[in-house]
Structure formats: structure tokens, C-alpha cells
Amino acid sequence: MSQTPRSIDRPLSPHLQIYRPMLTMMMSIVHRITGVALYFGTLLLVLWLVAAATSPEAYRLASAISGSFLGLVVLFGYSWTLIHHTLGGIRHFIWDTGHGLGPEWREVMAKATIGGSVALTVLLWVVIWIVKS
Amino acid sequence: MSTPSGTSMRTARRRVSGLGSARSGTEHFWMQRVTALANIPLLLVFLGILIAVAGSTYEEAHALLGRPFVAIVMALALISVTNHMRIGMQVVIEDYVHAEGPKVVALIGNIFFCAAVGLAGVFAVLKIGFGG
Ligand code: HEM
Q1: How far is B58 from chain A (nearest CA, A)?
Q2: Fewest beta carbons within 10 Å, which of A26, B3, B24, B122?
Q3: Residue B24 distance to chain A (closest CA, Å)
Q4: Interface contact A93-B125, CB threshold 8 A
Q5: Residues 89 to 118 of B: which have CB under 8 A from any A CB?
Q6: CB count in 10 Å sphere of residue A65
């Protein structure tokens, strides 16, 4: 037990200085970035909820901020981030079953995630626009 | 008494658990998946509620957010999401923050942040739900 084998050829994990950027690698990084962005997005959602629970004045302020142009831009970004991260998560579920890891499918799924997240985000805001106007 | 590994103080149970210096196994991986799965329907309803509430008056907002089904789904969503993001951020911290001091500070800060955000959200939902 006390002897450690000297050299084991372990597979290297993708590393920025070693591998050229590839689509699947960018998708992995984007999943992480969207996860971290959503982390702080949750704080904004909760601030809004706390304002709604505090007083009519606090609620009106929170509504004014979230309904402003900047607020809508942030909400739009948040919705794409959430949809993209969710589709990425579903991709992880497919991988967890052992499927979709081959060179062909992982490429197809990466593109489907990007296209799907953009399409669903646009669809969502069209629906919001129709329902709210 | 001779054990397979000679004079090791570790019990057989410790060895069979297969947990090394990381002190844990697949619990994180699994809970990340369980909370991710729960997040999908919960956030769908959560976002639907937010869209419905957007632009309404204080009274209208309280009437909608105060419904039991709405309040329960929102509280569940907050619990699932804050657990999911705590586990997820822990992995990110462990990947990038290597110095022991900053790492411990970041890991503890992450736990405090997620607990505070989750509790504040659930409290707000309950307060509105109980008519406060
Ligand atoms: C507001 C909601 C959410 C937040 C704040 C959030 C946050 C995070 C964070 C911080 C990570 C860690 C990222 C990393 O290790 O690279 C993560 C990972 C993950 N998220 Fe989310 N997430 C949210 C919603 C969702 C949803 C709806 C799904 C649905 C499928 C999901 C699926 C996953 C999965 C599967 C992972 C693990 C990826 C891996 O093992 O590398 N997340 N999330």
C-alpha cells in the first residue's frame, strides 16, 4: 500500500491553454457562467418578493425598477440565462443516462441548446407582450 | 489481529465506504440533479406567477401571491433553487479558489448567502400568504 506507482497516464481534463476552443467546451463554460449569473438573479427575485411583503411603497418602487427599460433588459437577459441553463441541465440529464456523448450527438445537442434557448426566449417575450398589452 | 493493510487504524467499515480525503462521495452530484429536476416545473410556475403579477397593483399582487397553491409553489421553488445554487457554487469555488483561507471564507459565505436568500424569500411568501 505504501508504494505509489510512478507514472500513470491519466486523461487530462480540457484546459484552456492546451485545447483550442470548441463548441462543446464553450457550452460547458456557458453553463457555469449562466449558473453563477442565476445565483445572483435569485437575489434580485427575492429582493422583489421582500419589497412586496414590506409595504405598498416598497412594492411600487420595486415594480418601477423592474418595469423600467433597464429592468426589462435585465429581465430579458435573466430569462435567456435561465432557459439556456435549463436546456443545458437537460443535456446533462441525457448524458447521465450514458447517451449523447459521441462526437456527433454532443455537437447536435450543443447547437440545439443555443438555437432552442434563443427561440424559446423570443417566444416567451412575444407571449408576455401579447398577454400584457 | 491482522488486517489486510497491516497496522492501519482504519476500520473495515471506513475502508469499504471508499471515501478518501474528500470525505464525501456522490451526494453532491446527486443532489445537484434532484434539485435541478425539481427546479424545472417549480420555476415554470414561478415565472408564470411573476408574469401574471407584473404591472399589477399592491392589492392585486397580494391577492394572487396569497393563494395557497401559489405560495406553496413559490416556497418550494425557493427551497429547491437555493439548495441547487449552494451546491453548484460550492463546486465553482472548489475549482477556482485554491488557497485554504480564501477557500474556507468563500465556502462559508456561499452557505450563509444561500441560506439568507432562501429564508428571506420564504418568509416574504409566507408573510404575504398569511395576509401580513
Ligand atoms: C435560478 C435557478 C438556477 C440557479 C441559480 C442555478 C445555479 C447553478 C449553479 C451555480 C451551478 C454550478 C455550475 C457549475 O458547476 O459549472 C449549476 C449547475 C447545474 N444546474 Fe443549475 N441553476 C438553476 C436552475 C437550473 C435548472 C432549472 C436546471 C434544470 C435542468 C439546472 C440544472 C443544472 C445541472 C444539471 C447542473 C450541474 C452541471 C454539472 O454537473 O456540471 N439548473 N446550477
Answers
A1: 6
A2: B24
A3: 20
A4: no
A5: 89, 92, 117
A6: 15
- Supply the CATH number for residue A32's domain: 1.20.1300.10
Torsion of CA A71, A76, A79, A80, to 10 degrees: -140
Measured CA to CA, the distance from residue A13 to residue B108 in angstroms comes to 28
Residues in Cβ contact with B34 at an 8 Å cutoff, skipping those fewer than 6 apart: none
3-state secondary structure of A83: helix
Structure confidence by residue, pLDDT tens digits, A107-128: 999 999 999 999 999 999 999 9
Tell me, yes or no, if A92 comes closer than 8 A to chain B by beta carbon.
yes
ipTM: 0.84
- Name all domains of chain B by residue range, CATH numbers in brackets: 24-129 (1.20.1300.10)
User: Where do we find the cell 462543446?
Assistant: A24
| A53 located within any domain | yes
Q: Is A4 helix (H, G, I), strand (E, B) or coil?
A: coil
Give the per-residue pLDDT at B26: 82
Query: The pTM is what?
Result: 0.87
Instruction: Judge whether A116 lies within some domain.
Output: yes
Grid coordinates representing A45 are 427575485
